[in-house]
Every structure is written in C-alpha cells, then in structure tokens.
Amino acid sequence: MFEEINDENESLNELFRKIQKIESKIKQNKKPYGNDKNFGLDQDYKSTERLDVIIHHNKERFLEKQPKSTIKSDNDGGATTTLVLSQHSNLQYSSIYASRLEKLNPILVENVQSKYPGVPIQKILHMKPGDECIMIGTLYKEMELKPNILKAYAQDRAMLPVLDNRESFIGEKDKLFFEDNTGRVKLIGSKEMIDSLVTGINVAILGKGLPDAEFEVKDIVFPGIPPQPHSRDLESLKDDAYICLISGLNVGNPNNIFQTQLLMDYLQGNLVDNGSDLLGKICKVLFVGNSIHKESEPIEAFVRYSSKSEIQAKQAKKAIPIKDFDGLLCELCQSVPVDIIPGPNDPTNISLPQLPLNSCLFPFSIQNTNLTTTTNPYQSQIGGRLLLGTSGQNIENASRYMTYENRMALTESTLIWRHLAPTAPDTLTCAALDNDPFVIEQCPHIYFVGCQDHFETKLLKGPNDEIVRLIFIPNFSETNTIILVNLKTLDTFPIHFDTTSFFPQSPESTE
Amino acid sequence: MKRSIAPSGGNNDKKYKAQVAPPPKNNYKGGEDDEDDEFEEDDDEDEGDEFGEEEDEDDIDVENIIATDSMDLDVQDDGSQQLFLWSRKPVQDLVPHRKPLIFQQLEVDYTEIKEPVPGMPGPTVGPLPAVRLFGVTKEGNSVLCKVHGFLPYFFISCPPGFTEADCKSLKHDLNETMKMSANQGNEKDIENIVVSIDIEKKKSIMGFNPNPLTDFIRITLILPKFVTRCREIFESGRHHFTIPGQPFRQYQTYESNILFALRFLIDKKIAGCSWIELPANTYKLSETPVSTCQIEVDTSLETIITREDDSSAPYRILSFDIECAGRKGVFPEAEKDPVIQIANIVKNNGDTEPFIKNIFTLKGCSSIVGAHVIPHKREEDMLREWRKFLVKVDPDVIIGYNIVNFDLPYLINRARQLKIPEFALLGRIKTTISKIKSTRFSSSNLGTRESKEISMPGRTQFDLMQAIQRDHKLTSYSLNNVSAHFLNEQKEDVHFSIISDLQNGTDDDRRRLAVYCIKDAVLPMRLLDKLMILINYTEMARVTGVPLSYLLGRGEGIKVLSQLYRKAMDENFLIPTYKVTGKGEKFQGANVIEPTPGFYDSPIATLDFTSLYPSIMMAHNLCYSTLLSAEEAKKLPPETYTTTPYGDHFVKSNTKKGLLPKILEELLSARKKAKDELKNEKDPFKRAVLDGRQLALKLSANSVYGFTGARVGKLPCLEISRSVTSFGREMLDKTKKIVEERYTIANGYKHDAVIIYGDTDSVMVKFGVETVAEAMEMGRDAAKFVTTTFVRPINLDFEKVYYPYLLMAKKKYAGLYWTKPDIHDRMDVKGLEMIRRDTCLLVRNVVSTILKKILIEKDLKSAEEYTKSVISDLLQNRLDLSMLVITKALSKTQYKGRVIHNELARKMRARDPATAPNIGDRVPYVVIQGSKGAPIYEKAEDPLYALEHNILLDSQYYLDKQLKAPLIRIFKPIMSNPDLIFHGEHTRTIAQSTLSDNNKGFFGTLTKKKVCMNCPKELSDTESTTCINCQHKETSLYQTSLEKVTNLETKFSEAWTQCQRCSGSLHQPVLCSNRDCPIFYMRTKVQLDLIEAKKTLNRFNVEW
User: Fold this and answer.
1) Which domain range does residue B153 map to?
2) How many domains does chain B have?
3) Residues in domain DNA-directed DNA polymerase family B multifunctional (chain B) (predicted)?
4) Does B743 fall in a domain?
5) How near does any CA of chain A get to the CA of B920, in Å?
6) Of B353, B879, B1049, the CB nearest to A429
7) Distance between terminal CA atoms of chain B?
8) Could you tell me if B957 and B1091 lie in one domain?
9) Looking at residue B298, what is its pLDDT?
10) How far does A394 lie from chain B, in Å, by closest CA?
11) CATH code: domain of residue B716
12) In a domain? residue B427
C-alpha cells in the first residue's frame, strides 16, 4: 500500500545547504511568491494533475453565528457603542445551552420514542413523583473540585488566572443534575453513571420521579451518530488522493528546526524522486493547531510590573517564529494547498471557536491563494469527504471531568452526543454565542483531533452505514510524525521523520 | 353563610388605634411610618402594656372578625386536602384525670382573664392574671397551659414600728389611692387592686449585712399593670401617700421592675425552654378555648412542676420570605406596593428535611420542582390564604431573614391597607391581633439597636439576622454575604427594581422570582441548622432561665438578672429597684502592658488567665451582698475583708459568701461538667447540645461582670466592676514581675525572659528559647508557678505559642498560632484591617498576603517585592475594580455636613431613581480622579457607573488613604524605613486619564475619524489599522490586542460560567445583582472590556 521512500542517503551538510537556500530566497524575493509561477524547487510537482480534488471550505460555519455586536468590525463609533452597551446584558452563556437543546431536542424525541414507544415525554416541571416518564434536557454536573473563580478570586488581587492543572476533577461528591427550560432535577444513579457523563450533553432520560426534585435514572438515550451526507464529489474521486495532517509543528521551538525542515523538504518532494507517487497525490496539507511555538510564561509574569521596553522586546521575540512560519508556508503553498487550523498556543483568541490566524501574521504567504487560515473547530469537504476536527481542546477538557475507557472512545462519544464540545462553556472557554455551532449536524468522514501525544486511529461504522475515520494527530515537535489519509479508502498512515537518519521512516501501516 | 362586611377605611383606622397601647410615658419620637403604633418600650414600664390591653377591647368588630375568620378556617378544613396535610397530628391519649400532661414550653406570657376559673387558687373575682405557657408535647401536639393563681407583688422596706396589725389599714389606704389613679375603663370597676399586704423576713442584697433578716412589706396586686403605678406611689412621693402611722417619706422598693412572666418562672424555678409536667388530675381542659392550640388546659400555680430533661420537642419551625413589587426608585412601602410572593419552608425540629415547601404567588406562576406553587388572582386572597396556612401549620417558631424589621411589619401593614383585618390574627390566641411596636435596647456589646417587635402570642419569632448580628462579626449582614460566609455559597440576588418587571411578565418570569423567594426562605433554615442556633439558644435559655424570645429581643442584662433573682430568692435576699440614671463615674478599663513592637522570630509563649473576670469575682468574693462601705470596714477586723486595689472593701467568703461568686461557681462547674461530657459523647446531636451548653455557660459567666458595670443596667454596682478591673491590672503587673524575675540567666535559665505585651487577660512572654517545644514547656511551667501566687480559683494557663510573632501596636498583632510543637494550627491576626468594612478588599487581601509571606514563608524580601508590585498595579490602574470598592450603610437621609456615601446616593438618585440606594442599603463606592483639591465626597462614584464609563480611579487616594497606614504598621517593626515602599521605580508609571488605553478605547469610539493604532495620525478610508508609516508594526500591534482579548476571554468565561452555575440554571440568563459577590463588578467589566478589545481586534480583519 505504501511505497517505500527512496533510500538515498543525504548528509547533514546537504540539509543545511537547503535551509540556506530557502533563507536566501526569502531574502531575495520581496515580491509576493504566489505571483511567480515558475518559482520553487519542484515546479513539476506543483502541477500534478491528480490534485484535481474538489475542496469546499466551510470556513464560515464557526463564525457566522457569533453575535454581531462582538464580531462586527465597526467603523462608526458612537452609534454602535450605545448599542453594544445596551446589549451587554445579553452577552451571557444561557443562549448557547438553549440553542443546543433546541437543535437536539427533535432528534432525542425521535430516538427515545422509537426505543420506548408509549412512555410519555414530560417537561421537568410537570413531572410527578412516582411517575415513570421520559424527559429531555441538558446535563449539569456539580463538582466540588471544578475550578471555581469565587474560591480563587478572593485570594489576591484577582489578577492571577484560575490555574488548576489537575488531571481529573472528578470528586467523591459529584452530583448530576438535569434541566430543561422549565426546571432542574437531581439525577439519582450509580457513581459510575455520574462519572461517565459531563456537563452540557443533551440527553433523553427514562426514569422515575422522586420527591424533592430528584429523578431516578433507568436509561439514558443519546442523540446518536448524525446522518452522513453523500457527495457526488466522492464518486469523481477516481484515484487515491491524500490529505496530510500535521499538528503541533511548533515552529520556533529551538529543538526541532531540523525535523521541521526535513518535513518541509519532504512535502515539497525534495527528499524523494520527482516521480514519488505518494507525494503527488497529496491534495491538502492541514496544520492542526500549535503550529507556532509559544514560550510558556510563569504565573508571576501576570502580576509583575513590566516596562514598556520589556513588553516590546517580548513582542519582538514572539514575532520571530511567526515570521519563520510565514517563510515555510511560502515555500509549501507553492506546491500544495494548505489549511491552518489554530490551536491553544497559536496567536489568535483562546475561546472556541478560535478565529482564523490573522492575515497580518503572514504577509508573504497569505498572498498565495493556496493558503487558507481557518477556524478551530474545522470543517470542510475535500473530494466529497466531510472533514471535521479540532486542535484537541474539546477532548482534553472533557477528559478531565469524566471517566472514559480511552481517549478514542471519548472522541467517539462526542459523535454519539452529536456535540463537539459539550463542556463549553462550562469548563471550556467559549464565546458567548446566540447559537451553538458545536452541534454535529452531519456525520464527518474524517474526524480528527490535533495536539495529541500519540498517533491513534479507528474506523467507526455507524448503525446506518456511516463510516468515520477517527484520528489522533500527534504533536510533530515531540513525535516527528505526520499523518496521511487516503480520501478514497480512508486508509491512514503515520510518517515518522527520524532525526538520526534524516529520513522519513515509514512505520507499518495500521490498516 | 353570613360574612361581615369589612369596615370602611376611616373606621378601620380608628379601630386599630383603639387597640394600640396607651401612649408612652417617656415620649419618644417614633419612626415616620408607624407613629400610631410605636412607642418606646421601657423595660421597667408597666407590664400591662404588653398583652393586657387586648382583653379589654370590647370591640364588636374584633369579635366579628374572629367569628368570620373561624368560619372561614372551618370551611376550608372540609374541602382542602392541602390544609389537612399542613395540620398537626391529632391529639391522642389525653386523659386529664389519669395521665399527666408533659410538654416543652417555648414561650411564656400572661393575659388577663375576666372571671376566675373555678377550682383554681387566687382571688375569686376578676379580672385576674393568668400565665400562659405555650409549648409542644413529645408527640408534636401544641399546648397552651394557663396557670392560675399567680399574682404580681413587690416589696418595700418596712418602717420601724410597722406591724402585722397595720397591714389591714395599709391595704385599704393603698387600695383607695390606687383606685383614684385608675383612669381607664374597667380599671375603675376593680374593687380590690391591692390583694394583700404581708410582712416577710428578708434582707437587701446591697451591702454586707451581718444582721439577721429584717421585716419587709410585701404588696400583692391584682394585675401586673398596676405594679409600676403602685411602685411610683412609694418611690416618688408624688401621691403624698403615707403608710398609716408613719411620717411622709419616700420608700425604696424591691423587685418591683421584673417582668411578670419572668417572675413566674423564677418563683416556680422553671428555666426557659424546659419541660413542664402537669401531674394527672391537676389540670383540666379549657371549656372555652381561647387559642388555636390543640391542647388547652387550665392548671394551678401550686401543682405545676418542671422536669429534668435536656431533649427538645419536635416543634414546628416556619421559615418564610416575602417579595414586594416596588415602584421605580423607591423601596417598597406597605401603603402602596403589593406583596407578590410569600415562600414558606416548614420543618419539625430534629428532622433534617422540611416537610412543607411552598410559595404563595400573586398571578400565575409556572410550577417549581420540589415546591408547591399556590397562585392567587388577588393580593387580598393571597394574604388571607397565607394567614390560614400559617394558622393551620401552627408553627411554634417563625424564622426568616430580617423578618422582624421587614417582612412581618410589611405583611401586617399591607393587610391593614387592603382592609383585611383578620390577617393580623397571626398568634395563637384567637382574639389577639398582632401589633407592631418599635423597641430599642442598649448594650455595651452591641450598642443601641432599634428594632420592631411584633406581638404574636404563642409563636417565637427568631430573626436569623438579629441572631447573626449578635453572635458574629461580619463585614456585611446581607443574606448574600452571610450565606457566602457560613454556607459557602453565593446567592443570586435580584435587584428590587427588576422584581416588578418580572412580576409583570409571564408565568415563567414569576417562576424565576419564586425560585429566589424560596431560596431566601431556605437559606435561613439552613443557617439555623448549620450554626446550630436554636440548639445554642435553647441551652442559653435553660442556663439563664429566661424564655427563648428574650434572648434576641432584649439586652444581655436580663440573663444575669434572671439568675440573680433565682439565687437571691434562695437566700431570702431582695433586689432593690433603682432608678437608672445612666450617669456615673468612669473608671479605668482593662489593663494593658505596653507592647514592645517588633517582629519576633522566636517563639512567644502566651499565658492566659482562664475566665479572668469571673475568677476574680470568685477569688475575692465580690458581690453586692459582700460590699462594705469604708466606715463599715473600719469596724471589722481587717482579716475578715479584702480591700481591692481600687480601695473598695468586700467581706471574705468565710464571713459571707457572695451571691455572684456562687452563681459564677455554678456556671463554671456546670461548664466543666458539660465539657467533660462533651469529650466522651459520640452522638453528634448530643455533642451539639453539650457544646451549646458549655458556650452558653461561658457567655453567661462572662456577662456577670458587664452587668455590674452597665451604667444603664438594672443593678449597676461600680464598686464591683472597678474592683474587678483593678485586680486584673494588678495581676498583669504581678505576672510580669514574677516571670521576669524568675526566668533569668541569673537563675540558671538560658535567657532572660521578657514580657513583650499584655492585654486584659493574657501576657506574651519571650523566653528567648529557640523552639516551640521549649517555649511550650517553659510556658506551662511559668503558668503553673504564677498560678500558685494567686488566690484560687484564679488560674493562669498556658495556651499557645506565637512563632513568629509580629507585634505592631496595642491590640494589633499577627502570628502563627501553635498549640502543639510539630505544626502550627493557623495564622492568627488581631485588630488589622481584615474585617473592617470601610476598607476595600484590596487592603484586606494585601494585608493577609503580606502576613502570609512574613509569617509562614518568612520571606521579608518577597513581602516587600509583592507590596511594590501591588502599588505599581494600583497606580497603573490594573487592579480589578471590586478590590477597590468601599461600602458604607446609608442609615438616614439627613447627615450633618456632606457625607461621602450620602452625596453619592443623591447623585445616583438623580441619574436613575430605580437603582439608587435607599435608606438601609449599603452604598458601595469607588473614589475616582477629580479635579485637584476636589473634596472626597465629590470624587465618590458608583462602581458600576465608573466601570461602564471607564472612569479612572484615584489611585493616589487608595495608596495614601487606604493602603499606606496598614502597610506602614506592618512593615515598621521589620524595616528601618518603611516609607521606602512608597517610593521608587514602581511608583513612577501612573495611569492618567489622558494616557489610559482604556479611556481611549471608550472615548475613541466617539470620534468619527479613525486614528492609527500606533501614532496619532488619522487614517484614510482604505486603511483600517495603521497608517502607511506604521504598517511594519501591524503584527506586533495585533499581538498586543490579541493578548488583551485572550486574557479577557478567559476571565469572561470564568466569571459568567460561575454566574450561570450559581443561578442554578443553564438555560436562563443570569439576572443576579448581588453586589456583595466578589465577581459582580469584574464580570461586568470583563463584558465591556471584551467587547472593546474585540472591536479593536476586528480592525485587523480586513481581507487582503
């Protein structure tokens, strides 16, 4: 399936030479790269015919629903200021939950009615103790250990962020509540059940009402895997086409300059013969989160006095990796379309959905239309395949508040919940949106999670023949591994760049 | 069914007036709202005012009301299952002639009955007093026990030559005089006001008297209300009354100012909240019950007995809360604004969960899980139904938060406004209308408190707010703050300006309101449980012998007085009634050994005198009954009396043991016993009772000294109190001398011990040793040694070691507190700006952080650095606003001069009357930058307003007026020049209104033209962020904006998810306006800042 990459041995000097070459090119060429059709190391590669894959970006999906007052670039000052001020009371989180339930309610009704025909569905406030019924609503887990700003706040000058990096916030006295738009009840069930769920999931619950606003749980019904769209584009995909997934590139991390360069060379076909079959078939490179290195700052920095010059120096330092990345992208975009999905450390906002990295960060590469900066979470359609993915925050956050078999199973659960990030906004920072963009309305073919510590994949088959390729993309800077996915077959391979031999190693294919 | 028509307005008002007690003797300017009903309650005024008036209102309308009312209740009984559920269990097994009736009494008062009950002792013609004991049986049935045969009495000194034979003529003359002064209605019809005159052998408690008992005249009257008048006849001389055969003179009266109900308890040796037994065949069921109690009996004074039993009956506790819909800008007024919701929680004492949780609402309301919603179309109906609910549930104890001063008066006044006269029948006596009185009491601990008192016979009102104000020192007594403090949860608070909007909204909106209302009723119940308030107060009632309701409604003195009377009675002592002048010489208070300020990095042992004042009184036999005048002392052999350091003389206990020492001994030995039992007790409930008891005993013992020193008290005796303090001073000095003389290098110790500070009952000793263990050992040794030099039971005890110890000034110190040698217990801070309300949170937090750094981390350098960074943050306006909010209570409208928070309230009222603070509210403010030299009151601003308008705060004010003094105090013992902290590089960058980024953000949007983000140049239409010259800086400018956004996003998310959690609902928007919540201002600020920051960021989002 995977062809062995040329065994030719290149020396370290060779590599340096290449790096210098690129650097000198960047210096020489002030002009936008994209305009120069003949520029680049591998002109042939760039025009590979097999790149004829239809790509639909769904860049707007995670953008459109934000309240206008916060996202609209506003040019006429005073008038909107009053508008914004009068609206500020609406800038809260309740609407996102309401929207979530509104979207998933019909699905839950359908599911639960087919599973338990005849059992009445009731609003919480109409529930009578002793009656068996079904209720539909949102889960809320009360946890003692959950980071709490009130506890943290009273302590100092309220300047320090609430930092609690414990692995798990599960405690002995966690309580599970359930609410719809009429009220809230406490769910009575096993500790295992309570621990296996998180705040924000929409479910239908079969059970019996108890006095004192409690509800005994007999069964929990989830929305289930959403329907999978079928695109004619997929049929047009005659031959193998690959997408390449790279996460945690961490450009600017002094420890992985070589690997990064090796990767870039590889992707541009510099390390292999021009005729490499595989490379030519890559129709998209996705950078999934943490592409740019960020120095971690000690907490003290938040309260320490910094002079203006210190701040400027800090900023200048931060700008270096961004420039480097811009340079790399310049090269890469010559040969292949690239999407950049921001991650937790990237220079954009921190709450989900993360906005696309700003074009002003990439003054050179952005001019090439091959480069697209996108939101996190990410959704697009490539060659008829629906791609959905995040830079990992959703899974990482949920994993701290629930028990799970393994992370892959947890990721699978998000599909069954039909929700990418149920813990947003409760524990996962998220914008105060009028509409919940994280509901998974269509089942993706490829569902990836970036910024993981290892590579893992699973092919999931849904009850209605949905097929989902789940992928954990490992951090490149730690594992030197990238992932290739065959769009046609959904086969998935990691490629490992061994720094000791400077060559990408092909591990055994997983499937 | 015939219903009486409610009387018309004018009539009605008159009727209420008619029921009001007679005007006060000492006229006191009452509050504006309730002039008719208010008069100052004077503790020693005529007893009759309290409840006696009601019986003689032969008012047709009251009877009509009652008739209608009982019909209403009966009708409801048949139809409504709900009312059935609310009711108490029926009475079983009540056989007066065969079985005793046993119940726990909770409330004691008395009434006047027109006719004597046959078979009961006492006069044979009425009116007569009957003591009413309200209580609950073990089975949970409510009981009213009317005790007959007890009459009020007092004593006067017996003039020489007065004999038994003279009694008859004195009785006649006095009776005539009393009748002449009788002025109103049925008083004139009473033939025998004076029931009897007797001579008894007694002794005055005042002054040591070695002589045998002498004669006193006991005057027994028919009704308690005559006592004051009769006393006056003897005391004032105004009536020119003379005892037959005696020249005209004034007489000292004895025991003439004690509350009648308390007198009964004392004479019958019944303690508050105790169990009462009526033996079989000594009581009978009342033929015409006057109360709504399930069991109503009559019994005789002679047969009633009290039982030893420290359990508690399953009495019913109702917690309620009301919501009113105020108009914009005014605090709700009962005359105008409707009551819209009443939430109720009912629990049986001893149960963990309430069995009733409901809410009465005006207009429809969506249902609430776990609570019964009872909607009403009309407010009148709601109030009527609520009262029926109350009567059905028949609570023994009514609790709530601020119910006595707000909820109850509001309901009663509102019902009057709506002409529902029967509403005021809230008590257990069918014919007694609840009335509102204004009272006030003064106490050295609590200061003068004005408060309302609602008469509601048979039900004990227990306002949690009063209890917590009494027992705990908090920065704010709002329910928010109190529940945050004790229950560790923030309460969502709805500003009263939104209440009306919610009320006028949909059923769901009202449901929201109902949820808050229920929470406000649940919280007092939870506070009651958590703080074990009823348990502790019950124990206090049992220890001191006063009824439960006295503990909250009256001062401290009554508790000591009750004990003193009880003890005095046993020894045939009489307590004179003094006219309290409130004047008296001042005497030197507690002593202090001047502190030697410094930072002590070696263990400081603390030696404490256990129960200092009580033990002094016991050791030196200080009492009213042992006091000698200087002349008397001269006549006695010197070894028989003690001369106190102040120069007063008291006989020694071998001559005559004082009453106060006896009381104290009993209290302290009972406390020791309770503590011993506590050690072995496992059952948590019994432990709580024992702990409550030992605490009550300790507090009682300590209040004895205060009682003798209270210049406006019942029985002040400065000779005692000043002797106590002078002994205290002498003991401190002596301790210092002994310790410093004994623990010296000369005596073979490693170091010379130094007393570095001493206050009232403790001394701090620096032994010079290195370790806590050594200091503890020496401390114990020293305590033991010093104790031997004092008279028993004075005891110096080693308690704890402070290490390290930062002594700043008198009563201002901090240290780590060690009671075991291996690890410190906690950080102990005294007298610093930790809990003062007029300092902002910043000061409190900074002080505590610095102390932590100094004491725990022992890192002076880091404390200093930290302080500098705080100052720098402050000056650069980087602190969270809520750190800088100062609050003051707006207690009146008229202040002398311009007071900062009053000026601000006025300013806010002009802006928006709806949200402006009202009288009684706490006004939070921040100090903003104003013109140079502007007075401070001009610079105060509403924190929210300052936030929303991005007004810069006056950081210099905060630095100089808030931070500086406490910081210098802390650093002074540590640094040679603490002023240096306030100077240096970190103080150079100061946020100015013109340079502030924030400010530019806000006002910047007001200018039409966009300006380059890096320089002041105006931008062309095609440019969005920077001018062409600054374009190279765009990325770095972007990053700066970005950083701001990410920080704000995190804060926003933390704050608002917390609010969402706190509000108990994910799907509904947060409405809370709880200004006591630490994140209230922050969450608003972050909301605004985030919008601004995102706007800035969006300027970059122009497609290329």
Assistant:
1) 93-312+557-579
2) 5
3) 546-974
4) yes
5) 26
6) B1049
7) 86
8) no
9) 93
10) 15
11) 3.90.1600.10
12) yes
One domain for residues B120 and B130: yes
Of the candidates B706, B705, B815, the residue with the CA atom closest to the CA atom of residue B757? B815
Cα of B1 to nearest chain A Cα, Å = 37
CA distance B558 to B44: 11
ipTM of the complex: 0.80
Written as six digits, the tokens of B429 are 């006596």
- Smallest Cα–Cα separation from B278: which of B302, B313, B314? B302
Nearest-CB residue to B1036 (from A94, A147, A315): A315
Give me the residue from A97, A125, A153 closest to B1066, CB to CB. Answer: A97
Residue B219 amino acid letter: I
Residue B1055 touches chain A, beta carbons under 8 Å: yes
Q: Which of B941, B885, B916 is nearest to B1080 (CA)?
A: B885
Q: In B372-405, which positions are buried (b, 16+ CB within 10 angstroms) versus exposed (e)?
A: ebbbbeebbebbbbbbbbbbbbbbbbbbbbbbbb
The answer to whether residues A483 and A494 touch, using CB atoms and an 8 Å cutoff, is yes
B770's tokens: 């290195």
B111 shares its domain with B231: yes
Question: Is the omega angle on the peptide bond into residue B127 within 30 degrees of 0, that is, cis?
Answer: yes
Residue corresponding to tokens 């009403």: B376
The predicted structure's pLDDT at residue B218 = 92
In a domain, B730, yes or no: yes
- Taking residue A265's Cβ as centre, other Cβ atoms within 10 Å add up to 23
Give the residues of chain A that fall short of pLDDT 50: 1-12, 15, 19, 22-51, 64-89, 157-159, 274-275, 502, 505, 507-511
Which residues, in sequence order, are CB contacts of B142 under 8 Å at separation 6+? B88, B134, B135, B136, B292, B293, B294, B295, B394, B396, B428
Distance of CA B179 to the CA centre of its chain: 42
Place of tokens 């090119």: A25
* B873 within 8 A of A157, measured Cβ to Cβ: yes
Backbone torsions φ then ψ of A145, nearest 5 degrees: -85, -10
Question: Alpha-carbon distance A458 to A491, whole Å?
Answer: 10
CB contact under 8 A, B1058 and A149: yes
Which residue's entry shows tokens 């045998």? B212
Which of A307, A323, A359, A360 should we substitute to test contact with B (largest number of B Cβ atoms within 10 Å)? A360
Residue B696: both structure tokens together: 């009550």
Same domain for B791 and B920, yes or no, is no
**Residue numbers in A near B1001 (CB within 8 A):** none
Give the best residue of B1035, B1047, B1070, B1096 to mutate against chain A (max A CB count within 10 A): B1035
Q: Which residue has the tokens 């109906």?
A: B381
Nearest to B1078 among A153, A367, A429 (CB): A153
Best mutation target among B369, B1043, B1080 (most A Cβ atoms within 10 Å) is B369
**C-alpha to C-alpha distance for A85 and B948, rounded to whole angstroms:** 8
Go through the domains of chain A in sequence order and give each one's CATH number.
12-63+227-505 (3.60.21.50), 92-221 (2.40.50.430)
**The pLDDT of residue B265 is above 90:** yes
- The reported pLDDT for the residue numbered B839 is 77
The span from the CA of B944 to the CA of B953, in Å, is 12
From B869, B1088, B1101, residue closest to A358, measured CB to CB: B1101
pLDDT at B507: 86
What's the CATH code of the domain at B206? 3.30.342.10
**Does B882 lie at the interface with A, CB-CB under 8 angstroms?**
yes
The pair of three-digit structure tokens given for residue B613, joined into one six-digit string: 């004042």
In a domain, B835, yes or no: no
Q: Is B986 on the interface with A (CB under 8 A)?
A: yes
* Angle at the Cα of B1040 from the Cα atoms of B1036 and B1041, rounded to 5 degrees: 120
End-to-end CA gap in chain A? 10
Q: What is the pLDDT of residues B1071-1086, one digit of tens each?
A: 777 777 777 888 888 8
What's phi and psi for B824, nearest 5 deg? -75, 150
Q: pLDDT tens across A245-269, in order?
A: 999 988 888 777 888 888 888 888 7
